[in-house]
Amino acid sequence: MSSLRASSSNLVWVAALVVSLMALCEAQLSPNYYDKTCPQVLPTVKKATGTAIAREHRMAASLLRLHFHDCFVQGCDASILLNDAAGIVSEKNARQNFRSARGYEVIDGIKSAVEKVCPGVVSCADILAIVARDSSVYVGGPSWKVKLGRRDSTTASKDLAEQNLPIAFDDLDTLTSVFARQGLSLKDMVVLSGSHTIGLAQCATFRGRIYNETNIDAGFARMRQRRCPPTAGNGDTNLAPLDLVTPGSFDNNYYKNLLRKKGLLHSDQLLFNGGSTDATVAAYSKDQAAFFADFAAAMVKMGDISPLTGSAGEVRKVCSVVN
Length: 323
Ligand code: HEM
Ligand SMILES: *[C@@H]1O[C@H](CO)[C@@H](O)[C@H](O)[C@H]1NC(C)=O
Hints:
- The chain has 323 residues and is an all-alpha fold.
- It folds into two domains: 41-165, Peroxidase, domain 1 (Orthogonal Bundle), CATH 1.10.520.10; 184-301, Peroxidase, domain 2 (Orthogonal Bundle), CATH 1.10.420.
- The chain has helices at 2-27, 41-55, 59-71, 104-117, 124-138, 158-164, 172-180, 186-192, 203-212, 218-225, 253-259, 266-269, 278-286, 288-303; strands spanning 200-202, 239-241.
- It is globular and about 55 Å long.
- Bound molecules: protoporphyrin IX containing FE and 2-acetamido-2-deoxy-beta-D-glucopyranose.
């Protein structure tokens, strides 16, 4: 009798342990998350991402940035993809995203391709994370194993986007706290900013720097002033490459530029301006392999910001609207 009671209480214990282990597994992202439920997800996303980048090379940069702008607002939950709707104030209209973040329709297209092979299984948040990695690889950057199992939010926050996304004019303390709020270190910030080895920026984001700053190469400033007039409202949307040397390929020229005072954004040159981050910038400028390895690790860390897992959120059918 007593041994029967002991074994049944053991059973309760084992059951409780199994349940809590399952909960633990669910709360963790894993690269194998879709192995059983959607084994085609990685090749499907890779192919569609490649098609989009072949059509427009810049798209690699735009897609990489979307994952970043997603993760810093409510975590990596695809909140950035939701359009204005009843109860939803779209992050697309936050000032850091408005007429700046791009590639939304590419993500919608990739999602439809994935829905064709595994309907209702793969989240938009995971698609953003996979696409960011594939974009890096397509333009010569590092690869990494993407952890998966994020679910999609049923909410978005324009206010939080405006609070949490960095601005090119921010000072180093502000930028540091913006990253710290996401659990990211100063070193993570330096290495993730290396994304500015690809892509373009609009005149309005670097005008103050090329006309009024002193820690800038004079010839570089003059060159950028040619297509970015000094008066606000003139040529605001004219584009310039963030990396003047190899704007289309992912490499460590971004850091080499900073050593020569040829960072395009105020926030870029801040990282090499006589402060505590100079040493990291100098190290990456000399060692592309170290940059690539640290970048890959930091992207995984960024992709881990507050995911919705288990039964939280949902798997959206269409990335721009809740189910
Ligand atoms: C350190 C703080 C950062 C600031 C202040 C910043 C700011 C900016 C600004 C102002 C632009 C140009 C947008 C435009 O003119 O429309 C830009 C572009 C870009 N940013 Fe950042 N950024 C930061 C960090 C990052 C991080 C961490 C990533 C990725 C992990 C990233 C990826 C990109 C990419 C790829 C582009 C080019 C996008 C395109 O061509 O469409 N940035 N960023
Ligand atoms: C440069 O600084 C001056 C003085 O603060 C300001 O009036 C001017 O608008 C600035 N110019 C640009 C292009 O930012």
